[in-house]
Structure formats: C-alpha cells, structure tokens
Amino acid sequence: MAGDPTINLAKAERLIDEAARKDAQIVCLPELFNTLYFPQEEKSKPLAETIPGETTVTLSNAAKRNKIVLVGGSIYEKADGKHYNTALVFDEDGEVVGKYRKVHVPNDPGYYEQTYFDSGTEYHVFPTRYGKIGVLICFDQWYPEPARIMKLSGADIIFYPTAIGSVKGVDQVEGDWHEAWENVQRGHAISNSIIVAAVNRVGREKEMTFWGGSFVYNQFGKLLLRADESEGVFLTSCDLSLGTSIEEGWGFLRNRKPHTYSKLLK
Q: Domains in the chain and their CATH numbers?
C-alpha cells in the first residue's frame, strides 16, 4: 500500500477492471483501501473525505464502466462534524445502493481506531442484481449479533472489508489470532446459513504485517476460496440457493427462541 491515496485509488481501479475482465459480478475491496492503515498510530493526521468525493466518484465510474456490483472497501468519511469508517455499495449503473458505517470500533495497540472513528448506529442489507448484500467492517466480524441481523434482514452474502494482521511487539498470548479470525467467521456462515466473504489487506506497514488470506465460506462452512498473501484478484462462484436449502433442513431460524434472548439488549 502506497502513502499516496491517488496511487492507491488508481491501483484499485486497475484491479476492479481486471476482476471484471475475469467475469466477476460482485467485487469487494479491503478496508481503508486508498490509504495506509493510519490507526496503528495514535497521532496520525489522515485526510478524511466527503461523500460524494473523489474516491466515491471514481468507484462509481468503475462500477458503471464494468457493469458490476462494487463493495467499495471502506474510506475515512467526514460528515456533520464526525468521522466514520464507511463502506459504500454501487450497482452496475454506478449508483450508490447504500452505505454502512462501521459500528464496532477497536482501541488496542496497533488498532487505535477510536481515536479517529465515531461508531455507526445502523445495519443495512442492500438489494442488488446478484443477490442481497450485507456489509460489515473488520472488527464487526468478531461479534455474532451483526451477522445474525444480516441474516434476519434477508442477506445472501456478508462482505467484511478488513485490515487485520500481526503487530510487532504484541505477543499472541491468547493463541493464533489468524486462526481465530477465520474460525469465528466460518461460524457466522454456518449458524446463519449465509455466505461470508472477508477481504483483507496484505503487506507490511510500519509495525503491522497484514495477513492477506482473504476467504469465502459457503452457507455450511465449506471453504470456497482462500487467497494467499499477495495483492491481486481472487475469484470464486457461489450458490445462493444453498442457504434456503440448509434453512429448510436445519431450521436455524424457525427454531429460534427470541423470548429467551432479552439479555442481549443489556
């Protein structure tokens, strides 16, 4: 990842075009794709963007040019005196289907995001030509509630634009972070009969080494794709109807007992 947002945005365009040439219908970029991962430091001075702005106009044009649905990773948004980590979804005509502002914002060594981001307050599912898309961002992926909300709201796929890796000087005393990161999202896929696609950053940035390893799991936890640690375009195909079949057989939703879940609201 370069320090110049213009270079990163141009690279994203090239990769979007490449994905479309390979017949991708939905394309997703990583979290904060057009900038270095500035939250690893508490005193960075990143430039926030408005929506619409240069980045969102460029992404809109790329979606329209390639006739794809585009999950635009996320950007550092400024709006009404606040700042958000925001993902936008564009349809094949380049129109904004909607946006999602990251709700769960971490504050840990190497991930000082609360210094920069206000929390969003809503979850959304976006109807597209190729299915209903839910978008959550990075730290959201550790929480089961947003994934369940996506399912209950009718999503076929959850995309997680992500920036996660190892931090120099921080020991993984709990266990293997990378393994836990993938396992928890596989669990979301199975328990919600939903496709989960995590799209992660790659490479070394100061004290951070991002894992890459983007992956897609189907609605019963079968691995459809795992990318390597390189930057590039990775594709797989998904059967959206499988979720309905699993739900009919296993009944995860129809056997829920919401009246016993009141503690979730405390």
A: 5-265 (3.60.110.10)
